[in-house]
Specification:
3-stranded parallel beta sheet, about 20% strand, single chain, alpha/beta, about 140 residues
Length: about 140
């Protein structure tokens, strides 16, 4: 049985449309495989910085390669936090003090210290900086 040309053309258009959709899905899937690595972030803390206070840093969301730079200021930072995140050997999570022009380093003081409300950890009343052991974020033993 011979099919009319209009039926064959319709079949070809539908088949071509389906093939295009499959190709687009495959390309998107391949792109996702190569772009799943999260970009590392630098969190700058201090006067005139994006984060004026240490407790504003999203400690619970740090990922491998992130860096927290705590800049010197005349008064101490009255804060405490838990570090319950994991870096890698090649991409550690780095927390460092940035000195003033005179070489003065920032001071973290536990008196009257504030804790980010998103962080909950046992021993909070005692610690200034606690490594591991938290309810929020989920307890992950830090590494690197």
């Amino acid at each position: 049985m011979i099919q009319p040309d209009c039926v064959n053309q319709r079949y070809l258009r539908l088949h071509s449309l389906h093939s295009s959709r499959v190709l687009i899905c495959l390309i998107c899937g391949l792109l996702c495989l190569f772009t799943t690595e999260v970009e590392a972030t630098v969190y700058e803390v201090g006067p005139d910085k994006e984060y004026p206070l240490v407790e504003k840093v999203p400690w619970e969301s740090l990922v491998a390669g992130d860096e927290v730079q705590i800049h010197w200021r005349p008064q101490p930072y009255h804060t405490k936090w838990v570090l319950c995140r994991r870096g890698t050997k090649d991409k550690p999570i780095v927390i460092k003090g940035i000195p003033s022009e005179k070489g003065e380093l920032p001071v973290i003081d536990g008196r009257r210290a504030m804790t980010r409300t998103q962080l909950r950890f046992w021993g909070e009343q005692r610690g200034i900086i606690k490594i591991g052991g938290a309810r929020d974020p989920e307890d992950t033993m830090p590494a690197h």
